[in-house]
């Protein structure tokens, strides 16, 4: 396959970036999108040009590192996948693919397609954990949790923090991410003790990081590789109101 | 309570919006009088509007209504400014069609159109009847202000009729997204009930858009 990549190139956070076009031959449809970028980078190395910087880690759809905006969608043309799980068979020979980094004030571009997502880490630091020392894993049946509660917590816990929700949201809202992290723990008995503090501190941090507010376009839910429900945001709102009233 | 938090602002948006949704039901019910035969409509409509104007309870509701429109607008502006700041650089290509509805992406724009409509609408009726601006409103045979005549004569102008009817399309779109999202903002997260609320929003907004849109046409062709 021959593909023309139009890729955002930016040297550093301070410099201005621009789109540059690269015509790449020898791409096979079995390549993942990241492998196609590797293929392009190999050619750039041979030509003595600067390679395209992009993030990745596991390449099996579970780490959330490979956030790239492809042809106007977070993680490319399919719903609920990561960029590493996107394959070139999703494109046609001769296609032009526009490749951009996540866009959000809270996710500044570091280089090319790499953005700084540490705003998410700072939200996590505000309470997406349990502060009690739990020791070794307890006996599985010691704390009984109804199936529907554990399913709900698990759906929220599946968040890999890739940032697609923020990237696709027209307001760069981090509501889906933050609500997933809150509801994961607040639904479980282990998380209940710190539930109110957790929701207040994490949402406060979310706000301080400069993310926008949720308008329920539903785009985040569609682009989320883990299919995390937008109802998590409504649940976070309810928990936030409750925590404010009971504080 | 910190009045500047995202949560506070969105709560104001949702609660004023939901109040306006309730108001529209009452408004449309009253509009239905207009499709009755002429003299019956005139009598009922005029005595109904006199009752409203003289009721102290309605006075409170009216002030709530003004406040709702003003706060819904101001907070929309504040939220939009903040949201724009959160995404200063837009994508070169953004395929929003693939993951969301056009309405949900453009609530602010649709809101501006509706606000313009409200300004025209208030100038046509509220300013004349409540503020006494423009031509004096005559009395009908029972001594009520002839509000029916004000309405009837406005809707003899086909341009106004078309303006009113066409602008009910953005109203319907805005209501459909706003109603179901307002409930989520206020913390309704039950899986089954949010689905039911979404369906109610669709039926409600269709009823409002069609109802408000068709009555001026009916009056014109009466």
From TrEMBL, chain A:
GO terms for molecular function: 2 iron, 2 sulfur cluster binding; 4 iron, 4 sulfur cluster binding; electron transfer activity; metal ion binding; oxidoreductase activity. Residues 150-179 form the 4Fe-4S ferredoxin-type domain. Keywords: 2Fe-2S, 4Fe-4S, Iron, Iron-sulfur, Metal-binding, Oxidoreductase. GO terms for biological process: respiratory electron transport chain; tricarboxylic acid cycle. Transmembrane segments: none annotated. It comes from the Bacteria. InterPro entries: 2Fe-2S_ferredoxin-like_sf, 2Fe2S_fd_BS, 4Fe4S_Fe-S-bd, Beta-grasp_dom_sf, Helical_ferredxn, SDH/FRD_Iron-Sulfur, Succ_DH/fum_Rdtase_Fe-S, Succ_DH/fum_Rdtase_N. Pfam families: Fer2_3, Fer4_8. Belongs to the succinate dehydrogenase/fumarate reductase iron-sulfur protein family. This is Succinate dehydrogenase/fumarate reductase iron-sulfur subunit.
TrEMBL record, chain B:
One of its GO terms (cellular component) is membrane. It comes from the Bacteria. Keywords: Membrane, Transmembrane, Transmembrane helix. Gene3D superfamilies: Fumarate reductase/succinate dehydrogenase, transmembrane subunit. The chain crosses the membrane at residues 12-36, 56-81, 107-127, 158-175, 196-221. SUPFAM superfamilies: Fumarate reductase respiratory complex transmembrane subunits. This is Succinate dehydrogenase cytochrome b subunit. It comes from Aquimarina algicola. The lineage of its organism: Bacteria, Pseudomonadati, Bacteroidota, Flavobacteriia, Flavobacteriales.
């Amino acid at each position: 396959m021959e593909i023309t990549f139009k890729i955002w190139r930016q040297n550093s956070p301070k410099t201005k970036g621009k789109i540059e076009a690269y015509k790449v031959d020898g791409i096979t449809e079995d390549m993942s999108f990241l492998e196609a970028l590797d293929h392009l980078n190999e050619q750039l190395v041979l030509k003595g040009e600067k390679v395209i910087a992009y993030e990745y880690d596991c390449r099996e759809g579970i780490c959330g590192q490979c956030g790239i905006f492809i042809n106007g969608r977070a993680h490319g043309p399919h719903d609920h996948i990561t960029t590493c799980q996107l394959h070139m068979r999703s494109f046609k020979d001769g296609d032009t693919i526009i490749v951009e980094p996540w866009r959000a004030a809270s996710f500044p571009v570091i280089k090319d397609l790499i953005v700084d997502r540490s705003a998410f880490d700072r939200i996590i630091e505000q309470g997406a954990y349990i502060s009690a020392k739990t020791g070794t894993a307890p006996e599985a049946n010691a704390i009984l949790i109804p199936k529907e509660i554990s399913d709900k917590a698990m759906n929220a816990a599946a968040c890999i923090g890739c940032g697609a929700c923020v990237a696709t949201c027209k307001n760069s809202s981090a509501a889906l991410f933050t609500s997933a992290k809150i509801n994961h723990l607040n639904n479980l008995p282990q998380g209940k003790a710190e539930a109110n503090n957790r929701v207040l501190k994490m949402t406060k941090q979310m706000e301080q990081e400069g993310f926008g507010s949720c308008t329920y376009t539903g785009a985040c839910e569609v682009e989320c590789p883990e299919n995390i429900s937008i109802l998590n945001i409504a649940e976070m709102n309810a928990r936030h109101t409750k925590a404010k009233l009971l504080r | 309570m910190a009045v500047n938090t995202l949560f506070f602002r969105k709560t104001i948006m949702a609660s004023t919006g939901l109040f306006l949704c309730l108001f529209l039901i009452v408004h449309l019910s009253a509009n239905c009088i207009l499709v009755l035969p002429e003299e019956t409509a005139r009598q009922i409509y005029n005595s109904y509007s006199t009752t409203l104007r003289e009721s102290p309870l309605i006075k409170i509701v009216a002030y709530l209504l003004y406040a709702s429109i003003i706060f819904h607008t101001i907070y929309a502006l504040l939220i939009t400014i903040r949201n724009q700041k959160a995404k200063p650089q837009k994508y070169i290509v953004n395929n929003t069609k693939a993951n969301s509805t056009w309405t949900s992406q453009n609530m602010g724009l649709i809101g501006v159109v509706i606000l313009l409509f409200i300004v025209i609408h208030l100038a046509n009726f509220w300013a004349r009847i409540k503020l006494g601006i423009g031509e004096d409103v005559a009395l009908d045979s029972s001594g009520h202000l002839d509000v029916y005549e004000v309405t009837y004569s406005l809707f003899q102008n086909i341009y106004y009729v078309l303006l009113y009817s066409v602008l009910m399309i953005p109203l319907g779109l805005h209501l459909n997204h706003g109603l179901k999202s307002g409930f989520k903002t206020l913390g309704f997260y039950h899986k089954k009930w949010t689905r039911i609320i979404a369906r109610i929003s669709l039926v409600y907004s269709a009823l409002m858009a069609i109802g408000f849109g068709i009555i001026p046409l009916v009056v014109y062709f009466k």
